[in-house]
Every structure is written in C-alpha cells, then in structure tokens.
C-alpha cells in the first residue's frame, strides 16, 4: 500500500512515516501543507493520503479542503483525515460528498499504529472508517425524527461498529454473537434505513452516512 502523509509539524509527519514504514507501508511522500499534498498526489498517485485537518496558512480546515479535492480529482486515492479535536461536522462534510474511501480518526488513536494501518487498508478498499469516540457521540444523539429511532438496541450496536470500519467477524467478536446474527442485524439496519441493495452502492457506507446526518 502506497501512502502520502500531510502534517505541518515535521516531527509528527516524520514520526508517523517511520511508524508506517516499519509496519510495511510504502510511504511515497510527505507534505507540510495542502498545496504540497496535492502536488505529491498528482505525481505519485498513492493509494491513501493521511491528512491533518488543520494546516497552513490558516490552520482551520485546509486539510479537509485538500481531501475533498483529492477525492474529486483522484477518486482512486482514499483519504484518512486526522484531527486533534473531536469535530463531528468535519466527518459530516467529508462523507457527504464522497462517502466511500474515507476515514476520520483522532490523532490520539494513531498511537496504536495497528489501528491506523487497519483504517488505511479499509478505506483503500472503498469503506469508510469513523473514530470510535465520534461514533459514540453520534449514537447518543438520538433525535426523535431520526430514522435511527427505528433500530433496536442490538441494531444500534451493530451500526456503531459498522461506522468504526469493523468487519462482520469483528462485530461478532465484539458483541459475542455469531456472524450469521450480525448478517441478519445488518440486513435489518439496511431495511429500516431504507437502503435498498444496489450493485453501484455500498450500503455499509450509506448506513454510516445516515448515522452522521441523523
């Protein structure tokens, strides 16, 4: 897997590159700002770009804007956004345009490099991965008119783990149930959220997008 890293703090950028390289990931470029990131993506065509949301010049959402440009102009390059702060609206904006091949993790999460490598693999395969802390906050925000109100507690649990990028086997292990039960719960989640099966749509991704919007 070929990855580019964008973070304006050199020590963070280089440290993350070293950790990923040691984990067997091919780091093909490092960028200190959004414009440099876009140039590297144009040249190297990485599988995934790991991008800090806050970069120069304003340190607000330059990384988010660069990520949206990458997904629009280079759809084969997935993106994992890293943030020091818990901001659900960033995840909402990111997934609203291109819900597949995207991830949003808090920086504290990548101290476990295995978590980041797993997220990179999943987004490269077209899935979306949302930080568990964000998922937990979203699951507590149950609005009366939300379609999530149709779900049982078990189905809520399954949807929350789907949003974290867990596989059916991973969900089964976490909840102590069989994969067959997970498959049945997923089917119910999709049905209750009015997500019809289609060869052109990833219902797991669309279910997570529904969670973010609810």
Question: Distance between termini?
Answer: 34 Å
At the third CATH level, what is the topology name of the largest domain?
Answer: Rossmann fold
Rg over C-alpha atoms, rounded to the nearest angstrom? 17 Å
Mean pLDDT: 87
Counting copies of identical and different chains, the oligomeric state is: single chain
Overall 3D shape: globular
How many helical elements? 10
* Tally of discrete structural domains: 2
CATH C-level name of the largest domain? Alpha Beta
**What's the arrangement of strands in the largest beta sheet?**
2-1-3-4-5-6
Catalogue the unreliable spans: none
> Any idea what the CATH architecture of the largest domain is?
3-Layer(aba) Sandwich
Overall number of strands: 6
Give the % helix: 40-55%
Order of helices and strands: EHEHEHEHEHEHHHHH
Largest pleated sheet: 6 strands, parallel
CATH superfamily assignment of the largest domain?
Response regulator
Backbone structural class? alpha/beta
* Amount of beta strand: 5-15%
Task: Briefly say what this structure is.
With 214 residues, this protein is α/β, with parallel strands linked by helices.
